[in-house]
Design brief:
The complex is a heterodimer. Chain A is mostly helical. Helices cover about 45% and strands about 5% of the residues of chain A. Chain A has four helices and two strands, in the order αβααβα. The longest helix of chain A has 30 residues. Chain A is flat, with a radius of gyration of 26 Å. By secondary structure, chain B is mainly α. Chain B has 22 helices and four strands. Chain B has a two-stranded antiparallel ribbon. In chain B, helix 5 runs parallel beside helix 11, helix 7 runs antiparallel to helix 8 and helix 10 packs antiparallel against helix 14. Chain B is globular. The chains are: A mainly alpha, B mainly alpha. Chains A and B meet through helix 1, strand 1, helix 2, helix 3 and strand 2 of A and helix 5, helix 7, helix 12, helix 14 and helix 17 of B. Strand 2 of chain A pairs antiparallel with strand 4 of chain B, so a sheet runs across the interface.
Amino acid sequence: MTPEAARTAEPTGEQGIAIGTLRAEVSRVDPTAESPGWLERGGGRLLIRLLYAACALVLVVSLVVSLVGHAFDHAHFGFERFFAFYALWGFASFFGLVLVAKAWRRVVERPEDYYGDDRPIDPLTPSAPEAAADAPEAEP
Amino acid sequence: MIEALSNLPPGAPMMLGGLLLLLPWLRGRALTVASFGLAVASYLHFLALPSDLTITASIFGLDLVPVRLDALSRVWGHIFHIAAVLSCLYALHVEDRQQQAAGLIYAGAAIGAVFAGDLATLFVWWEVTAVASLVLIVAPEPGNADRDPRTAFRVGMRYLLIQVLSGVLLLAGLLLRLADGAAAGDDPPLAFGQLFSGDLLQADLSTWLIFLAFGIKAAFPLLHNWLQDAYPKATHTGSVFLSAFTTKMAIYALARGFAGTEALVWIGVVMTAFPIFYAVLENDLRRVLSYSLNNQLGFMCVGIGIGSELALAGAAAHAFAHILYKSLLFQSVGAVLYRVGTAKATELGGLYKSMPWTTGFCIVGSMSISAFPLTSGFVTKSMILSAAAYEHRTVVFLALLFASAGVLDHSGIKIPYFAFFAHDSGLRPREAPWHMLVAMGVTAALCLLIGCLPGTFYGWILPFDVHYEPYTTLHSLTQYQLLFFAILAFVALNKLGIYPHERRSTNIDFDWTYRRLAPAALGPLTRSVSRAWHGAIAAGMRRVRTVIDGAHDLFVPAGVIGRTWTVGQIVLWIMTLTAGYLILEFLRR
C-alpha cells in the first residue's frame, strides 16, 4: 500500500468507527518562494554569536572564580581544579563522538529496507516502490 | 462503597477501568474521555491511600504481599500515575477501543508491579505489561509512513518473544529461590526486598536468572534491541505510553533488588556510552529517542550500582524526571508524526514555522534531557554524578560526563534541529491538536518546575533523607562549560562540513545476530529438522489414512461388517461365538 493509499483508506473497527488514523494535515510549499523566516534573516547568525559570547563569558567567570573564589576547591578530582576542564572535555567528547560515529557508520550502515520492514517513503508523493512491497519477505 | 474503594490496590482502578472499556458501552470521544478520567481517578485514589499500606495474602500456602507501599515504591507510583494521566490526555483523539484499554491496563500493571511486595506478584504484573503493551505496537495506524503495516505484526512478535523471555527467566529464578528458600527456612522465601549486592560472580543461579530478567526489560547492553526495534514502530501515541513504563519498572526492580551490585555500575557506564553513537546516526527520530532512552537508563543503573543513599535517591529522582522529559520528547515527535505522517529526519525540517508551540515544548524537553540548569535533568542527573564523585570513581565519572555531552547531541540538538529547523523541507503541517499541546505544556511545565524548585521536589519525592544542593557555583559553572562548548563543537562540525548528514538507512545493531546471523547459520539445521518433522507428520498421516480407509471398507453398506446379514448367518455367528466361549471356559478350568 502506498502512503497515499494508506492515508486515504479509513479502516473501520467495530460500529464503523475509524481507528488509529493519522490526521496528516500537511501541505508542501516551495521554501525558496516564501519570505525567509526569522532564522534565515539573520536570527541563526545571531544565535551563533550569542553562543560564542556565552562560551567566552562562562570561561572568564570560571577563571575569575578559580583565581579569587573557593568554589573550585570543593572539586573531588584533581583535574576538576583546572578552570576550563569541563569546557575542554565537553568539546572533545562531542567532537570525538561524532567522528567515531561517522567511522562506525561505515561498518553498520545498510540500505533502508535491509530487514524488509522499512521502505523509503516520501510523505507526500506516493513514490514507494510497489514491487519491493509485493516481493515476499526474505525468509531464511 | 468508600470502604471497598480504599481497599483497592494502587493502579487497580485504572486496570479494572481498562477492562470495562473493552465492553462496547462507550465509543468515540466518550471512550477516550473516560480513559483519561479513569487515569485521573486512579491517581486520586493513589493519593488517598495510606502511605504505608500493605496487603498480605496467603495463596497455596505461600505468604504473599501483593501490595507494599513504601518510600521507594511511592516515587514510581507518583510518576507512573502522572505519566498515565498525561499520556491519556495526549491520546484523547485516538478513538480506538483496543489502544485505549491497552494503555490503561499497561499503566495499571506497571503500577501494580512497583507495589509488588513479593516476586510472584511481580511476575504476574511483569507479564501483563508485556502483553498489554504489545497492543500499542501492533495496533493499526494507516498513514504512518515509518512502518509497513504488514510488518507491524512481526515487530510485535519479536517484542513479545523477548518480553516473555524476561518473564520466563523471572519465573525460573523465583521458583529456584522458592525451592532453595524453603530448604534454608527463609521466611518468606519470595519476599521482594534486597536480593543481592556486591560481586555478582558470587551470586547463585536464581539470582542470576532474576538479574537477567530485570536486565532484559532495563535494556542492558546486548539485551537492548527490543527497545529500538519496537518503540519506533509503535503508534504515535503508543510510543508515549511505552517510553514511560516498561524500562522504568525494570529500573525500580533493580533499585529494589540489586542496589549496590558493582556490576551495575559498569553495565550502566556501557549503557550510557554506546547507544549515543547510534543515536548520532539514526534517521528515524523516534529511533533516536529510543537510543537516547537507553542511554538515560544507563545513568540510573550507575546510580543503583553505586548504591549509596545519594546515588539511589539520584536514580529514583532521575527516573522521575526522565519519564517526564522523555515523554515530552516522544510527544512532540509524535505530534509531528501525527501531522506529517513520518518522523524521519530526512523528510523533515523547517516545521517551526507552522508548529511553533510543539517546537517550543520540544526544546524544553531537549534542554531538560541535556541537563541545562533550571531544568529537571540538571537537578537529578547531577545527584548521580556527585555520588560517583563522592566515591572517587574517576573513570565512571568521566564516562558519564562524556555521555552527558552525547545526550546533548542526539536529544538536545538533533531532535529539535532536524525536526523543526535544519533545511526547510517546505512541509507546513498544522499545529498539533489542543489536547496534545496541553499535555506537552503540562509536561514541559513540570520539567521546568522541578528544575527551578529542586528543594521542594526532593522533599516531596526522595525516598531517603538526603541533603543535596544542585545549584552550587561549581556545579552550575562546570555544567554551563560542558554544554556551551559541546554546542560549540556542533557548530564547528557543521561549519567544517563534518557533521554526518541524515541518510535513509538502517544501521545494524546487535539484533543483526538474531535477525540475520543466527537464521543464516542455523538455516541448514532448521531446514533439515523441518524436513524431518514434515516427513514424520506425513508418514503418520499416511498410517492414519490407511486405518481410516480400512475401517471405511469394512463398514460401508457393501463392506464385510456394514452389509445386511441374513438370519442364518447371524445364527451361525452366535453358535460359533458360544462354542468358542464354551471351549475357553473349559480350558480355563
